[in-house]
Write a structure and sequence with these properties.
The complex is a heterodimer of chains A (about 110) and B (about 110).
Chain A lengths: L3 E4 L2 E4 L5 E7 L5 E8 L3 E10 L2 E4 L6 E3 L9 E3 L8 E8 L8 E2 L3 E5 L1
Parallel strand pairs in A: 2-11
Antiparallel strand pairs in A: 1-3, 3-8, 4-5, 4-9, 5-6, 7-8, 9-10, 9-11
Chain B lengths: L3 E3 L4 E4 L4 E7 L6 E7 L6 E7 L2 E5 L2 E6 L4 E6 L8 E8 L7 E2 L3 E6 L1
Parallel strand pairs in B: 2-11
Antiparallel strand pairs in B: 1-3, 3-8, 4-5, 4-9, 6-7, 7-8, 9-10, 9-11
Chain lengths: ~110, ~110
């Protein structure tokens, strides 16, 4: 069963703790993306990676970190420096090439208490 | 001016109505245009994908791109309650540049 998986679906953390969100894909996609979604804000790009061992900051990278050690995995760490971490986090991936579609995972809802 | 503008709604229509959803954009380099449908608390799913100007039809859905006006539309014919969702437009230029999203329009189809 191919696709993009994100785990867990819901995540609760105390303020001041770092937390890592998982994103795995078995679609053999080259590029992977992390977005944050808040009510009324649409999707905002946090980080993206086009190849293994390389990634770029998106529009709102502050307070977040990523790694891309394997093609199929792109974990996102929400650090204690992120001032408003409670949000819906979406991972996406696509094959390289101008005309390739981008697909999303089911998302992780992070709540910081 | 934001790169992509999309009316957030909410938009409420009766079942069977024709729905028109729209986005405008400012970057003339955008060539690839997509519409995603997102149900509450779910990831967006790709609905329509269009390259450059023109129309594309898939069942009850039609996507239109007018690059001269920097305007894209999604039409839903014979709308159903199951179409109730948030619709996101997205677009990008050539190469591997990231998608730029509109904020989404929340649609409710009332039975």
């Amino acid at each position: 069963d191919g696709g993009i998986t994100q785990s867990p679906k819901y995540l609760f953390r105390k303020e001041g703790q770092n937390v890592t969100l998982s994103c795995e894909q078995n679609l053999n996609h080259d590029a992977m993306y992390w977005y944050r979604q808040d009510p009324g804000q649409g999707l905002r790009l946090i980080y993206y990676s086009q190849i293994v061992n390389d990634f770029q900051k998106g529009d709102i990278a502050e307070g977040y970190s990523v790694s891309r050690e394997k093609k199929e995995s792109f974990p996102l760490t929400v650090t204690s420096a992120q001032k408003n971490p409670t949000a819906f986090y979406l991972c996406a991936s696509r094959t390289s090439g101008s005309n390739k579609e981008q697909f999303f995972g089911p998302g992780t809802r992070l709540t910081v208490l | 001016q934001k790169e992509v503008e999309q009316d957030p709604g909410p938009l409420s229509v009766p079942e069977g109505a024709i729905v028109s959803l729209n986005c405008t954009y400012s970057n003339s380099a955008f060539q690839y245009f997509m519409w995603y449908r997102q149900y509450s608390r779910k990831g967006p799913e790709l609905l329509m994908y269009t390259y450059s100007s023109g129309n594309k039809e898939d069942g009850r859905f039609t996507a239109q791109v007018d690059k001269s006006s920097k305007y894209i539309s999604l039409f839903i014919r014979d709308s159903q309650p199951s179409d109730s969702a948030t619709y996101l437009c997205a677009m990008r230029s050539s190469g591997n540049t990231p998608l730029v999203f509109g904020k989404g329009t929340r649609l409710s189809v009332i039975a």
